[in-house]
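## Example pair
The file below holds two records. Each record gives the amino-acid sequence first, followed by its structure token line.
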Amino acid sequence: MNTRTVFEFDVPTRTLFGAGSLNRLHEQSLPGKKALLVISNGKSTRAHGYLARTVEQLEKAGVSSVVFDKVEPNPLKDTVMAGGACAREHECDFIVALGGGSVMDAAKAIAIVATNDGDLWDYVLFGTGKGKPVAQQPLPIVAITTTAGTGSETDGGGVITNPETHEKTGVFDGTRLFPRLAIVDPELMCSVPPAFTAYQGFDALFHSTEGYISRKANLISDMVAITAIENVGRYLAATVANGGDLASRERVAFGNWLSGVQMVVGTCTSEHSLEHALSAYHQELPHGAGLIMISRAYYTHFINKGCCPERFVRMAKALGMEDAKCPMDFVTALTRLQEACGVADLRMSDYGITPDEFETMAHNAVSSMGFLFPADPAELSIEDCVAIYQASYK
């Protein structure tokens, strides 16, 4: 597999990275004077004091805020519409997304509907989306991430679920949805429970393993992806074992941030499409958990096809298997990491998924997020997708 020597690099987000970075928010040039402060519908942001600290920082900067606390895991279209209405009602002129990937993804979609009429799905380019151009400038965004999983603080898109059509797909608008400012403070991630630390970490890892084997890999995406794989792969188990280990948290957060960059200069592949179909039908399935479930069968499929063997060996070494010699060593190293993180035995059946859904899900992956399939190192048919689901089922 030859690395492409042509690429575009446009990551316009300014990032403050490192422990204590939230304390510098008030010193920054913010894009407005009244923020819609978007958080999840859970308790952790308030319970751990992150919301109060953020409000305090905004007040120091002379910014008032209105809290929108409705975002669920795998955020829904109706929630996005409610967030846009809230921003309009309170005349907010920018958004602060305080939370994990779901909050940041929802904030990007809210930014669109806060300034543009109609339904979010009017502006979605895939599946049943109407593909209308976003006429009015979306609200600017400041992203403060409390997890290391999606890299959404670095990229210009989000993923939203439409439960009426069982579509979970991307929302994009050129460079206008990139956060103006991202704060990546590992101190805010120390409260994430072990299982979710693992789910989120593997999501970050797969953004880069997918990018590294994709047909769209290039000089810059290779550099970013392999460094992300090293940082997540070598520090995630320690982070899961000891959530307060700030040194390992910082390295996983760095790998996650890089994986967000990888999605901009490179791409993901159909592994993400296949998982989004799972959680589109089973809302309670964490995205990272679904990726873990299908990952070994997914990568084994392409190894058996003879795709980019040298890249699988290189990724195995990046995960810490220095003596790796064959492509399947990557799956071995991946399995060991999942075992070390306590997530190797996740079961689809525990989330109500049944094998008779697989063909429907395969078609859903292609219709809702088919734009990732051309990046695969070999063509993946519907039958191949079903076989990957079947091989992953427990």
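Second record, same layout:
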Amino acid sequence: MVRVKPFAALRPPRNLVTEIAAPPYDVVNSREAKAMAGEKSLLHITRPEIDFDPIADEHSQPVYDKAVENFRSWQEKGWLVRDPKPCYYVYAQTMDGRTQYGFVLCAHCDDYLNGTIKKHELTRKDKEDDRMIHVRIQNANIEPVFFAFKHNSGLEEILSQVAAGPSEYRYTDSNGFGHEFWTVTDDALIGRISDLFTCEVDAFYIADGHHRSAAAARVGAEKAALKAGRTGEEEYNWFMAVAFPESQLRIIDYNRVVKDLNGLSHKQFLELLSEDFEIVAKGPEAFRPEHLHNFSMYLGGQWYSLTARPGRYDDSDPIGVLDVTILSNLVLDRILGIHDLRTDSRIDFVGGIRGLGELSARVDSSEMEVAFALYPVSMKQLTDIADSGNIMPPKTTWFEPKLQSGLAIHTLD
């Protein structure tokens, strides 16, 4: 069973929340962050390189020092204020008329280390190291991890109950996504939430934030090693997450663009593809994959439907059945010579939130030669893979909307 606890968050006063709330550090680059960050934006803490002119190396010591300075300053100025007691929080996000409700809570580092918090992606050590530095120097989890949990009627009833009351924050961001936030201060309800998670929820599934989870667990273990008489309940043993019922979550497509055809002409490339796919030309209008094992491809100003031929994949294999695996094995590896998605500079990844137009634009600009759109992975596929101990290929899932940063911060003391 999972371990959870409430915490006394650092968070913005109600009148400042829209100025402070920001997208996660990893969905904007430094240039984008600098352009969008107002005076009070949390991006000055999560992307402090933007405070330098020109923008500094985000991994340099002056940038890390600036992050600490800004975090301290935001508290001194009253832009981030600590709640008077440990609370749970409820966070709702609305996109395209659909709302998902989750608990903002602290999860235990040991649950990550022992596999009760389940992963479905590998992490990169350099990204882990960078996030670990941020957690260590700030002594805080500035941004939450995104968890899913399986259906629990008691917890979902509490989400509905809390959401029926007055909220602390309510606003719409620049993407048109709605955000609403409630505090749970009633001691009896706090106890009920803790009991339900501890007694009835077998596991958390990391939806987004594998590097943040790994970094938090490493900092917790690092601090524990330095402390005599550790009980396991010290604040550094816990890290911040938002946990949603899996039924409320939606995974959208995560697509690929490739710089060249590995020396092949368009005709040669299509001929090789036809060995493993049924190909139908769709013309210049964008074509979206219609079902599993159906892909769309943009090449030479045209969209194509590619349907994997029977026998080219294994539906009984939780990894082999994934469309990202099929595309990697039959196209990227076999034909295009891209063997490692994590390191090959010839491939890039485009979240489905950017639309199919982003794929065709990158090809039409001659930056890329070909683009592939994939049918989205399901939550069941994700949890089945995590439960089996398997790992999805890189860049398989894209959850939207992203969690806003700055609504709550967890400190480790």
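Notes on the second record: The first strand starts at residue 4 and ends at 5. The longest helix spans residues 210-226.
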